[in-house]
Amino acid sequence: MKLIPILFIFIFQFPALGAIKCEQLLLSDVTSQQALQSQTESVVKHLRQHTSMGISPFQTEIKAYFNALQKSATHDPVMAKLFKMFQTKQYTFAMDRSAARRTDILNKNEFVNIHQAKRSAGAYNPDARSQVEAEYAGLPLEEYNRLPDATKPKSMYLVPETSTGIDLAPTIYFQDNKTNKYTGDTWIFALDKIERNTAFIVGDSYNRALIEREFADDFKQMIILPEAHFLKNNILDYVLPLDLLLTAVPFYYEQVRTKNKFRFVNEDSAEYQKRFEDFKAEMDGFLADWQYNLINDLRPTFSAGFFEKFPELKPYEKSFLFRPYGNYVEGLYYGPLSVAGKVKALIFRSTPPTAEEMAKFKELGIQVIDGRKRIKE
User: Fold this and answer.
1) Rounded Cα gap, residues 177 and 36, in angstroms
2) What distances in angstroms separate CA 273 from CA 117, 157, 269, 280, 293, one per listed residue?
3) What are phi and psi of 348, to 5 degrees?
4) Which whole-number Å values give the CA distances from 141 to 17, 128, 147, 168, in the listed order?
């Protein structure tokens, strides 16, 4: 396979970031979409500057790591497939939402974050989330809290394009605990319509932030009182530009090779189930079951022969590049996010769209896919 040369030009390069005064980021009265868009652009620019400065000490190591990945793709077909997929952008991002909210999303033509919705399918803790998001953005919490909620990130997850032949694996938030089936809708976005405002983190951004707290030795305290700052000694402690998505390639390798599934960890494996039960016992019922699933996916495992097969990756086994938290790559979209012009497909797994919903999907040019049999877990 002919590999595309890697260009180490990071688009998030900006001049040294000085103190940005509040009035530079904040508008006194956001009364129009134009003003909100201007505000979003200011936030995204600041995020890029903060990330660029934060990861600059690692650029030599990043280049060496990418060269090692490129080498690994020359002698293994699955690694080659993943490498090509990430290089040629055969991926996009998706959101899972309850089927009961489908009509409301279509009518309002808008996806919202937890600050706007005042709820979450995961853990709803707006104060802690604001602190986490402020740290990722490199802003003081007081300043971040003054931003319009619509400018703040909406969470997505990375999915393969259908052309890759890799199964899309939905998130766990809308899983029926009795039947173990996924019942939510998956809204799939057109990459070229969202990539300008999208960054990513390997793993779950909120859980990673909680677990990375420097001064929290007790896990329960870490969940409840996330006041300490990030360690900031790892490029995965930053929200990264899509240029660096290749960092995630090795984590998908085992599951794509064995199950053709786009995940880091096989939740059905005996090893995972033991980790899950051990962790539940350790926490003594402190978390809900779905939270154990998320947090227990802390460190994807590699098969015994992985680093023998890819010796060029062995130097990174215990380095900053091999510390994801979660079972997927999370995308973070900053700014208002509409259905029209952004969504290209919807996968439903329980209730089919009504006639009115189908008419709206057709009007918007959105493909509707029956996932009740097509996509299996």
Assistant:
1) 40
2) 33, 23, 6, 11, 10
3) -110, 145
4) 18, 10, 10, 36
Instruction: Determine contact, residues 345/95, Cβ cutoff 8 Å.
Output: no
Neighbours of 366 (CB within 10 A): 20
Query: Residue 219 and residue 241: Cα distance in Å, rounded?
Result: 30
Among 224, 303, 268, CA closest to 276: 268
Q: What's residue 98's pLDDT?
A: 86
Burial of 158 (0-12, 13-18, 19+ CB in 10 A): buried
What single string gives the DSSP state of each residue in 203-260?
A: B-HHHHHHHT-SS--SHHHHHH---SPP---SGGGS-B-GGGGGGGHHHHHHHHHHH-
Rounded to an integer, what distance in angstroms lies between the CA atom of residue 122 and that of residue 202?
Answer: 18
Q: Check: CB of residue 134 under 8 Å from CB of residue 205.
A: no
- The DSSP letter of residue 345 is E
Residue 289 has pLDDT above 60, yes or no: no
Q: Please, are residues 97 and 182 in contact by the beta-carbon 8 Å criterion? A: no
Give the Å distances, CA to CA, from 68 to 169, 312, 366: 27, 5, 39
pLDDT tens-digit readout, 20-79: 343 344 444 445 778 888 899 999 999 999 889 888 888 888 899 899 999 999 999 999
pLDDT at 29: 44
The token duo for 21 is 């005064």
Segments in the chain forming alpha helices (H): 22-25, 33-55, 59-72, 77-87, 102-108, 114-117, 126-137, 141-145, 191-194, 205-211, 219-224, 249-259, 270-283, 289-295, 306-309, 355-364, 371-374
